[in-house]
Structures are given as structure tokens and as C-alpha cells.
Amino acid sequence: MKKANIFSLIATLTATLSLVLNFTNTCAANHAVTPESIAANNAAAPGNAVDLTYAAEKALPSVVYIHFLQNAKIQTVEVESDPFADFFDPFGGFFGRGQGNGGKQKRQVQTPKKEGAGSGVIISTDGYIVTNNHVVAGADELTVTMNDNKEYSAKIIGTDESTDLALIKINAKDLPAIKIADSDKLKVGEWVLAVGNPLGLNNTVTAGIVSAKARSLGANGVESFIQTDAAINAGNSGGALVNTQGELVGINAMLYSQTGSYSGYGFAIPTTIMNKVVADLKQYGTVQRAVIGITGTDVNKYYDSMKAQGKEVEVGTMEGIHVEEVLDNGAAAQAGIEKDDIITKVDGKSVKKMSELQEALATKRPGDKITLTFMRGKKTMQKEVTLRNAQGNTKVVKNAELDILGATFRPINAQEKEQLEIPYGLKVTKVDNGAMKEAGVPAGFIILSANDTKIASESDLQKVVKSASTSKEDPVVYLKGIFPTGRRGYFAVSLEQEEK
């Protein structure tokens, strides 16, 4: 009996051990490190530790260091005239040093060379990189350093001051592009990483949570920031804010601080805004910004303002946008929106404050139609609104190149300067079909200024044309110049482009 019991016990223990080994192998197979398992683990029961190593490993290769260089330049500036200058320099006025206009005079000064640094995020394998406008604006040279220390020169594809975003490109292939996630799905309290190059410390990762969404600070024209307590410092600008799967949810833009260094909160531009800006910059060179044609404020701010003035108002809700003014001939006016309406939804999605309305509009283009849900009194209504651009129409606004003018140019030579007694100028050498022909500008005309800007080269004219093409007013370039006979000439060149 005893031997039988021993053999029986051994058989039982063997079977039990086999079950344990099978269970262990199954668990190991079920817990392989994948994006899905990381997400499941990080979304597990409250109190569980969050693993951020996978997110850091995925995001770091996609974040680059950007070096900014602006060369020293000679600029003409206006300064107050010195009333005693001619007393000490009797020849000053004769040679033009003391000549001014209304107590002012123009002087040439040399600006110092400027250098700076920031971060960027690779969004495509063929070299497109997103960063902040303030990281690259005004650069003469941009150098991009990869996570593996390879360096490339970059060119600016386009910039957008209103959202503080910029798109640049390097000549490279098979780059480690980051996966872009939908920032709308972010939740307050969710873990995020800020990846960048702060304070000269390359390849830095900091962690925190989403502290708030759709935050407005009054720093940019279009704002709906993701607020995070992940440390963001100088140099982080343009870097990546990623979720626990290493996917891009925002572009780090600024910190909130009274000292100039991190003191609690940073702010990132959500990918919902970034995606639209990038697409527009690629296709048009400038952002197609849709406007609704109202001014307004958050309902709770309007209510508090009225209360502070001793006025009682009944708005029916404390969430939404109070319409303070409906602009004449704008999209809202055309649709029948009125002053004191309360906008509560865009295309069925709730908008609780002005920054959320801005974010919704930032994904649209002029000519797009949206459905606004709003309250008038205590009655809920809906209207379809056809969005317009800042010029009040649905035309595509392009960042025009010189080819829109349909002409060729060259700087004037020394003989032309001497003959016409002019120090600079850009000569129209040929006129084909285009804006110049339509305006009546002939070959031979010498441009001296465009929109009151001195024109001495094609690059000077290019800057004026680009600026005018995206103007909120009429897109027109006003040329002043001189004909070969010495007669002065003036032309208005329209840059209006096609209807959407």
C-alpha cells in the first residue's frame, strides 16, 4: 500500500507540474511586448505602474535637433533726428546725413548674427519635419541633426504664425517617421512624454500627464493647447508630445513660467490642428484658414462679465460660445446667426469654449460647409454655414511664387543706374501671360518699389508677392518704378487666384 501511495503521489505531482508549466508558457505568450500589450498594461486597473520605456524607444529616433542661423544683415532704420547734428557737422545736411522726415532720419545699421536651437519631428520617411514657426522663422540656414548624429541641411516648405507651426524638409529617405495619433482621443489624466532637446541636452525625455485640453493662452492667433505637467524647457520647442504607445499627439510649443524655465506646465499643439496645417503648407505654401465671421467669448466669461456689471442674464447654458458680434457679409451673417446666440455644437460635436471652436474651424478650409447648433433664447436651432477666408470669399489663397506674375526680371546694371540716376531697381525683361500682363506692365519697366518696399533683386520682389498673396485685404502688389525714358510709372498687379 505504501509503495502504491508513493507512486500515486509522484504521478499527481507530475501532472500538477505539467499544468503549471503549460499555464506559465501560455501567460508568457499572452504577454509578449507589443503596442497592444503596452496599451493594455498602461490602461490596467488604477494604481498599476505605467511602463513608458516602449514609448520613449519608439519616439526618440523620430525627434531631431534643429540649429538656426540668421546671418548679419544691413538694414535701414528710422531714428530720431539729432537737433544739434548740423551745428557740430555743418556739412551733414548737404550730404544727406541730417536729412529726415518729421524729425526722423534713416540710417543703415548692421544686425548681429543670430543662432538658436529647437526640436522637430519627422512625419514622413522622405524627409518632412514639423516644428514651431518660432524655431525657424527668419533663418538663413537650418541644420537638422538626427538621433544617430547624422546632419542635413533643411529648407522651409512653409510657416504659419497663427498656429506657430512650420514644415521643413531634408533630402533623405527611409527616415524613422513617427506614427501620428488622433489628439481628440486624449483624456485628461493620461500619461504622455515630451521628447526634445531642452537646454542643449539632446535626446531628452520627460514624463507627465495631460493636465487639460483646449487651453487658450492668448499667445497665438489660433489656440487649443494640450496642457501637460511633463517638463518642457527652452529647446523643447517643436519636439514631440507622445502617448504611451509612442504615437505623436502634439507638437511642444511653449512653457508657462514667470522665471523663464519650467515651473509646472507646458503646452503642445494638438495633431488635429497640425495635420491640417501640414497638408495646406504642402499643397498651397500657406494655410487655408476658414473663418466663421463672428467675435465671441466663452459663455461663462460672458455671464461673469454681465454679473460684474450688475446685470442679470439668462443664457440657458453655461457651456458654449456667446456671439458678441456678427461681421457684415461674413459666413455667419449669411447663414442667419445673430448677436447673443450661444453656439453649442459644430457638426454635432460639443464646443464648450472658444478654443474648441477654433480647433474645429482649424480643420476646415474656405468653402467647406459646417452645421452649427446654437441657442437663441431658450430655443435650440441649427444652421448650415459655408465658411469663407479672411478676404470674405471661398477662393484658394496661395503663397504665390514669382511665376504668378508671368514675367522675367534682372537687377539693373551700372550703365542703367548712371543713365537714369537711380541707385537700384529690378528690370522687367519679358512679359508673358500672367498678372503683370493683365496689369499692363510692359517689358523694360524698372521696378523701384513694391508695396512701399525697396526692390533691388528678385528675392525682394518674391517676399512682397508672398506677403501680398496671403493678405487679409485685397491681394494686390502696387508697383512704383521708372521707364527707360525716365518717366515714372505706377501699376496695381492683382494676385487673385482661383475659386475653390
Give a quick set of tags describing it.
alpha+beta; 23% helix
Can you tell me about this structure?
- The chain has 12 helices and 26 strands.
- It is an alpha+beta fold and 500 residues long.
- It has a 6-stranded antiparallel β-barrel with strand order 1-4-5-8-7-6. It has a 6-stranded antiparallel β-barrel with strand order 9-10-11-14-13-12.
- A hairpin with a 5-residue loop joins strand 12 and strand 13.
- The model is unreliable at 1-33 and 85-100 (pLDDT under 50).
Task: Describe the secondary structure blueprint for this structure.
Blueprint: H1 2-30, H2 35-42, H3 53-59, E1 63-70, E2 73-80, H4 85-88, E3 104-111, E4 114-122, E5 128-131, H5 133-136, E6 141-145, E7 151-160, E8 165-170, E9 191-196, E10 204-215, E11 225-228, E12 240-242, E13 248-256, E14 265-270, H6 271-284, E15 294-298, H7 299-308, E16 321-326, H8 331-335, E17 342-346, E18 349-350, H9 354-361, E19 369-376, E20 379-386, E21 407-411, H10 414-420, E22 426-431, H11 435-439, E23 446-450, E24 453-454, H12 458-469, E25 476-482, E26 488-494
Antiparallel strand pairs: 1-4, 1-6, 2-3, 4-5, 5-8, 6-7, 7-8, 9-10, 9-12, 10-11, 11-14, 12-13, 13-14, 15-16, 16-17, 17-18, 17-19, 19-20, 21-22, 22-23, 23-24, 23-25, 25-26
For the largest beta-sheet, the strand count, sense and barrel status come to:
6 strands, antiparallel, barrel
Helical segment count: 12
In terms of DSSP E residues, the strand content is: 25-35%
Distance between the termini: 95 Å
DSSP E strands, number: 26
Q: Structural class of the helix and strand makeup? A: alpha+beta
Mean pLDDT: 82
Question: How much helix, percentage-wise, in residues?
Answer: 10-25%
Oligomer: single chain
Radius of gyration: 31 Å
Overall spatial form: globular
Poorly predicted residue ranges? 1-33, 85-100
Major sheet: arrangement of strands: 1-4-5-8-7-6
